[in-house]
Amino acid sequence: MNRCVERIYNGVIKENPTFVLMLGMCPTLAVTTSAINGLGMGLSTTVVLVMSNMLISMLRKIIPDRVRMPAFIVVVASFVTIVQFLVQGFVPTLYDALGIYIPLIVVNCIILGRAESYASKNPVLPSIFDGVGMGLGFTFGLTCIGIVREILGAGQIFGFQLLPLAEDGKIGYTPISIFVQAPGAFFVLATLVAIMGIIRRRAERKGKPLPAAQGCLGGDCASCGHSACSGKAVSKMEAAKDDKEEEV
Fold it and tell me: Does pTM surpass 0.90?
């Protein structure tokens, strides 16, 4: 499989940020009261992911290792500010709906995680497609949650009335309002994650398992190629070895 296509497949399926890695849960639970909100937040995050991955990859040999995280945050914050002004200027209704969660893209662990684990170690083109894949996976997750919550909570999809409402004694759909409130986000997310788990188990039974996440996002420090991370992993292993020797 072509490397660029593989990065998109990785972000949408194998390491989907929402349903597999469980990253970016704050905007996932907060803004998905409707499908359009989820789509808007996902696309905004995708733009920031692609642009920050591209720039960080271009500067990967220039940014000193000791200040890489502050540098990453400055890069991400710059693109988030641009996206925020564009959304505020051209889609004010979406800006009002997303509110504080647009500026909070700066500290989204998906963006910083991909910058640290992939863009800072790979060429520009694969890094761009890595951002596209992760962004599309995040957008897909948020939109799916938003669609389910909007249908159950309002009988609508993307603002269009899908199910006729019960009015003036007429038979119709009675919205389940809890699904557009905070508890509904947890219910829908848990259900969709459970469905993803079923899909993964079926793939394993067919002999085509979806690989587990590795590196900074998956918490597997030993498999991470970054020098600082590898040093931390070695330190942890040495500390654990010393503890065992003391117990003996």
Answer: no
